[in-house]
Write a structure and sequence with these properties.
Blueprint lengths: L7 H4 L39 H5 L15 H14 L20 H7 L2 H4 L11 H18 L3 E3 L5 H18 L6 E5 L5 H8 L3 E5 L9 H7 L4 E7 L11 H10 L3 E6 L11 H4 L3 E4 L1 H4 L14 E3 L11 E5 L2 E5 L15 H37 L15 E4 L1 H7 L3 H10 L6 E2 L8 E4 L7 H20 L1 H5 L12 H6 L17
Parallel strand pairs: 2-3, 2-4, 4-5, 5-6
Antiparallel strand pairs: 1-7, 6-7, 8-9, 10-12, 11-12
Helix pairs in contact: 4-13, 6-13, 7-8, 13-16
């Protein structure tokens, strides 16, 4: 970790006034005393065999290296770690393409109800009818929202949903006796798209964007042929722009027998306004943990249900929930590609998303997207004069700025701007993606941020832009107020130290 000297101007800035009162502390192994205990086990009563006789060779030769701390010390330690973290509850989190919206606490209450949280995947269907009914209704709701009636809730995340959809495409083509080789992907696609293509045994081919930020139709038509299995699109795309030629794209793809997949990462922009099924898509995955407001980040949990047309529904992984009169049960579709997840998927995420959809209803979901689009365009209008806006037209739920001019004129990178935003109490936007924009910043405010938060974010960006012009070293050396400064990211990625190891001479954090 490098620790550049604090710039005098930064020390006197408004951001410095928000300096954390407490930074990193000792490791939990460095707390407490040898006599400290959190739990004392009662002495066994009556006759009992010694552990040596019970465990034999399985008995440890040395006791485990556990911290000697009291319950109070444990609570303070982990409470402090939580205070050092940043989440949506801490402040605005405009991480583009991640939809870091507020997660209503009523959803948490719902998923913790005993009938949901206490259900076991091996229970007989008759004993979990309420949960199965919820999952069936969620399938129906997602089918209606997407315009694609076949739904599986199994995939555990967006990329998992992509893989599932493409596996269904492959099975469908093979059933038609049609062996295809290529999948077409725009140059603005999420990085998981080409990875998914490779995992399914296809060859990925990149289609360039046009001058308006949409798919270059001439290049797409030139690439389409009978060996194309699918076209993968994100709509709105990762530039935050709606594909104006979407009907032409799906029609051209299907004219050569290709299927069209919609990466649903950005569905927060179009709920109740437009449906992928009506645009001609054959399949879509939802990110329930994004669009339908369940906590995410740090690796999970998530859920990436897949919705497909009727002709593809029989290939979906199972079990899917079906209704027979008043009873609900799981069933494997006729030509199913098999399971892609154990049991029923991440059920806790499904319950949260269901609660969110039911609380808002159709009108509320449409208002979510309208507000998300309004907030993004408000920020775009206010910030486009400070930073380059490569595709500065009406955006959807997010937009992309470029810091290329700042780097050229002042040597300040987008990464530096992101670090400086931390001093103002904001999580940075997504940086360096999409790759087709140099020094990109992808900003997604979401619908849950109030106008005051949007204005405060703009004020912070104005302040940073002024620092770049007058004293760029302030920004280059940021952040100043975070618990840790800049890390050696290359070293952290190549030689990670992920666990504490005891030192033979005593407890130590050195591994």
């Amino acid at each position: 970790m490098s620790a550049p000297a604090e710039h005098p101007a930064a020390a006197n800035s408004d951001a410095a006034a928000h300096r954390p009162a407490r930074g990193p502390r000792e490791l939990i192994f460095e707390l407490g005393a040898e006599e400290s205990r959190c739990v004392e086990a009662p002495a066994p009563e009556g006759e009992w065999e010694p552990l040596e006789a019970l465990l034999g060779d399985a008995l440890r030769k040395t006791p485990p290296a556990l911290p000697n701390v009291s319950e109070l010390e444990i609570m303070r330690h982990y409470g402090h770690l939580a205070e050092m973290n940043f989440g949506v509850d801490s402040g605005m989190y405009p991480l583009g393409s991640c939809t870091m919206k507020y997660n209503p606490r009523i959803n948490e209450d719902a998923c913790r109800l005993d009938g949901f949280a206490g259900a076991h995947p091996h229970q007989p269907a008759a004993s979990v009818q309420g949960l199965l009914e919820l999952m069936w209704e969620l399938q129906e709701a997602l089918g209606e929202i997407s315009g694609l009636p076949g739904v599986t809730l199994q995939p555990a995340a967006g990329a998992h949903g992509e893989l599932t959809a493409l596996m269904c495409f492959r099975a469908y083509h093979l059933d038609q006796g049609d062996v295809r080789k290529r999948v077409l992907i725009p140059d603005s696609a999420h990085g998981t798209n080409p990875a998914t293509v490779s995992m399914c045994g296809y060859e990925a081919e990149t289609i360039p964007s046009g001058s308006d930020g949409g798919v270059d139709m001439e290049a797409l038509r030139a690439a389409l042929a009978q060996d194309v299995a699918a076209v993968m699109l994100t709509n709105p795309n990762t530039l935050g722009l709606f594909e104006a030629s979407i009907l032409d794209i799906t029609e051209a793809a299907q004219a050569v027998g290709a299927l069209v997949y919609c990466d649903g990462a950005n569905m927060n922009a179009v709920l109740g306004i437009s449906r992928p099924g009506d645009m001609g898509f054959d399949a879509l995955h939802f990110n329930l943990h994004k669009t339908f407001s369940t906590p995410h980040g740090g690796g999970g949990p998530g859920a990436g249900p897949v919705c497909v047309t009727e002709k593809l529904a029989s290939y979906l992984p199972g079990p899917v929930v079906v209704r027979d009169g008043d009873a609900y049960a799981g069933r494997m579709p006729e030509r199913s590609i098999g399971r892609v997840r154990t049991f029923w998927g991440n059920v806790g995420v499904l319950v949260r998303a269901y609660a969110y959809i039911r609380a808002l209803g159709a009108e509320g979901l449409r208002e979510v997207s309208e507000q998300a689009v309004l907030s993004a365009n408000y920020l775009r209008q206010r910030l486009s004069g400070l930073f380059d806006c490569p595709f500065c037209r009406m955006c959807m739920h997010e937009f992309v700025l470029s810091g290329a001019a700042m780097r050229k004129e002042h040597g300040v990178r987008t990464l530096d701007i992101a670090k400086r935003l931390l001093d103002h109490g904001f999580h940075p936007p997504t940086v360096y993606f999409p790759l087709i924009v140099e020094e990109s910043m992808m900003i997604e405010p979401t619908e849950t941020e109030p106008l005051s938060a949007l204005d405060a974010f703009v004020d912070a960006m104005i302040s940073i832009a002024e620092e770049i012009r007058t004293d760029p070293e302030i920004v280059k050396n940021a952040p100043y107020t975070t618990p840790v400064r800049r890390l050696d990211e290359a070293r952290a990625a190549r030689t990670p130290d992920l666990r504490w190891r005891p030192d033979p001479g005593g407890l130590s954090a050195d591994g």
